[in-house]
Amino acid sequence: NAEATIASLSPTPYPLPLGPLAPIVEGAFNGMNKTDWIVTGLRERVGAVLRGCAPERLVDGYAGARPYRVAPVSDAPGNRALHAVGLALGSSSPVLCFLGSASTAIGNFYEALNAAALSGAPVIFLVSLMPLGDDAPVGTQLAASPISIAESFGIHVQEAKPTIKAIQAAVAKARKNGTPSLIQVLLERST
Fold first, then answer.
1. Which end of the chain is more exposed for a tag (fewer CB within 10 A), N or C?
2. Environment class of residue 112 by beta-carbon count within 10 Å: exposed (0-12), middle (13-18) or buried (19+)?
3. CA 116, 104, 29, 119: dihedral to nearest 10 degrees?
């Protein structure tokens, strides 16, 4: 398994294991064509092995995997959404962008939704939300769900279950749509 291989190489920085994100990563990569760009966070980069990338190449978490169309990771997670819109505008095919709660709670997310809606960029925002408990270091981060925010921009939205098959189908549907899309996945709180 690629995750174990990469972990054995002591990557820095590289937050493994994927845990509940594993089926989301696999389904999302499988829902895209190998010629489509994917903008990931540090965890989701492991999906590049599904495109033939050697795990050893992923040891440097900030290096891109250009031949595999996996963009380098940004130090600011919220920038991913803006980078994905830019890639989609400069590409002839859709771009997938992985996001989480923190990256959707900052201004860059809103800017990216606005830019995507105005330009019609074929970008797919895949947002994985994990409920925060009372022991979380931060309180509530969003006054509205990412799906309702995207709808307010006129962006096509879907909700998907956190299974490989459901994610793959949702991503493939958004890809075929060819317009800005947001897929929201609710994860169970880990104990």
1. C
2. buried
3. 0
The answer to whether the predicted template modeling score (pTM) of the entire model surpasses 0.85 is yes
Least confident of 3-12, 19-28, 89-98, 127-136: 3-12
How far, in Å, CA of 126 to CA of 136, rounded?
23
Closest-CA residue to 160 (of 141, 135, 185): 185
User: Residue 11: which of 45, 50, 47, 53 has the closest Cα?
Assistant: 45
CB 111 within 8 A of CB 152: no
CA-to-CA dists, residue 122 to 109, 129, 161, angstroms? 16, 22, 22
Helix (H, G, I), strand (E, B) or coil at 158: strand
Cβ neighbours for 64, distance < 8 A, ≥ 6 positions apart? 70, 71, 72
Residue 13 pLDDT greater than 60, yes or no: no
Give the Å distances, CA to CA, from 91 to 83, 96, 122.
Answer: 12, 12, 9
- Tell me if 42 sits within 8 A of 63, measured CB to CB: no
Closest CA to 129 of 100, 160, 102: 100
Distances (CA, A) of 105 to 44, 78, 109, 165, 176: 19, 8, 7, 28, 28
